[in-house]
Each structure stands twice: as C-alpha cells, then as structure tokens.
Write a structure and sequence with these properties.
Layout lengths: L14 H8 L8 E9 L3 E8 L3 E7 L4 H16 L17 E3 L2 E7 L13 H21 L18 H17 L5 H20 L12 E4 L8 E4 L2 E5 L6 E4 H12 L9 H15 L3 H16 L3 H9 L8 H13 L1 H9 L1
Antiparallel strand pairs: 1-2, 2-3, 3-5, 4-5, 6-9, 7-8
Amino acid sequence: MLRSSVARTAATPDGHTLGSLLRRYPGAQEPLSCEPVAEGLLNHGYFLATTHGRYFLKHHLDGDLGALTRQHRATRRLAALGLPVAPPVADEDGRTVTVLDGRCYALHPWIEGGHLGGAALTGDRSRRLGALLGLVHTALEQVMADAPHPPRPPYAEAAADPARTFEMIDELLALARLARPRTSFDELAEHRLLERRALLERQAHRRPAPGAEPAAGWVHGDFHPLNVLYRGGEPAAIVDWDRLGVQPRAEEAVRAAAIFFVRPCGTLDLAKVAAYAGAYRSACGAGPNELAAAVHRVWWERLNDFWMLTWRYRLGDRRTDPQFPAAAALAVWWTREYARVQDAFTG
C-alpha cells in the first residue's frame, strides 16, 4: 500500500542529533548548517555543511538495515568498478548506517550537478545514457553475485488484471467527481479515466501471459531523471538506490525511457529512444526479443496504472499532479503507436 510522506513528515535533525551523528565521523568535524533538499516516501535528504566540507545526509524512513546494508555494499562495489555513484561514508568503526533515537541515517559525499530530462539530451547523450544503464545492469550482476535475492511477493511478476483495474477506475471516478472545489485537474482526471476504461475494454485480450516476463536480475529500481546527476554534460552520479532489487532488467530500461523521453504532449521522442535502446542492448547483451517482451509488459502496466491519481485522491498528495497530463496521454498514444514504439526499442 502506498504511504504518503505528507503523513510521515520528519523534522530536520537538530543540533544535538547532528552533533551525535558527526562524532561518529571524525573527519566530518562540526556541523554548520543542515537544509532539506529532498523528501520522499522512502527517505528524506539534507544538504549538510560542516567545518570540513559538504555532505548529503539521508534519513531512511523505513529503517530496513538489511536493505540498507545491501544498497551500501552494492554502491561501494560499483564505485570500485568506476561507475558514477556516491557510496556512503563509513564511520570510525566502518559502519555506513547510524541509528539515533530509532532513526537510520547515512552520510554521503555531496555531489555537485543537475538533472537533465530527455529534452536536454542530444542523440549522443541518449546513447550514452542507454549504455550507462546497460553497464549498471551488467556490473550489478557481477557485484551482487554473492547476495541472496530479496524475497518478492508471489504475484510480483503477474501482469495487471483488467478486472481489478476497472474497479479502481470506478473508485477514482467517484472521488474525482466528488472533489470540491472542482478544478480543471478533476475534469481531466474524469476524462482520462473514462477514456482508459474504454481502451482497456478493447485491449483486455492483450494481457501478457504468465511467464512472458524477460530475464530478471539486479536493477537500480528507480532509474529516472531525478536520480541521475549530470555535471558538464556527463553523468556525475546515479543516486537513490532504495529500490535496488531483482526485477526484469529490460523492463527497467523501458520504464526509464518512458520517463526520460516523454514529451509534455504525451508522446515519446522515438529517435532518442532508438539511440538509447540500441546502446543499452549493446552494453548488456539484451536481444530484441527481450526488449519486445519488456515493451509489451510495460505498455500493459501503464495502461492499468493510476498511481498518480491514487496519490491525489486517496492520499491527498498532489506532488505528482504536474506529471499526470503527459503520463495519461502517453498510455493512449503508446497504444495507438504500439508497433513504432516496439521498433524503436528493438532496432
């Protein structure tokens, strides 16, 4: 079940907490300032300045020490292979997680950089992005070879059931129609929900069959523009490894492209997608059939997905509202241009 950070707000660590934390990192010295820079479902982030330098302080809300240890080990090993990551700083005892008053913190070096969406990526940069993700997947296979796969629900790879989607559509329609004051967003939500229901009724026979998912492996789990920092046009760091896990690898590549290369009108820049996908396939050895299966499953996933409306109407969290128009339009356009999208990913 989704949980909103609106209901899980954490205060900026006070001077006492910061002092206790930094005493475990003698090289960090004394705190000067601590400012929020990120707030999400899985963590809160802070820009921490000390008398020694600048850091990114991460407060992991869920506090899963096993998962954190796995993430930190993976990023340290990836850094050793030369990938652009920002592993956590180890304290004087070699630990990378500090628990204070029941809260889990990790200290990372501060990485200067900015985010680039698909509109800012040239064809060459799109190719390099695809090659980078392919390298991440092959490197994770190497560095996580001795790690047991985390437990996954038995339904994790099952394609969405349209019968359940219809129930969700009805629920969200009722909530959108009851919204007061009624806004243009509510009008758009109602239009897209009705449109999607009709589309699904026509496409229900194309639900991916059990066992049709492509090969699974270790993936970043949340590869999108806000989790890739660029400096001077080159990737400086891939951040936020909280969803590191085992999933169909090619599906991560397709999901990432659907975020990086979606236009505001809800279409994909297929020329950049083709450049990105070709480089991804070359970097990790994924074949056209693997990408084709991933495209089909992610298309179906998008067709049945209403997480942004769930955040707004069930959780009262409107942070994703600006993304909804393009994402909702993409599902419809993708259905219409299904063959062209497949060709862009498979070459």
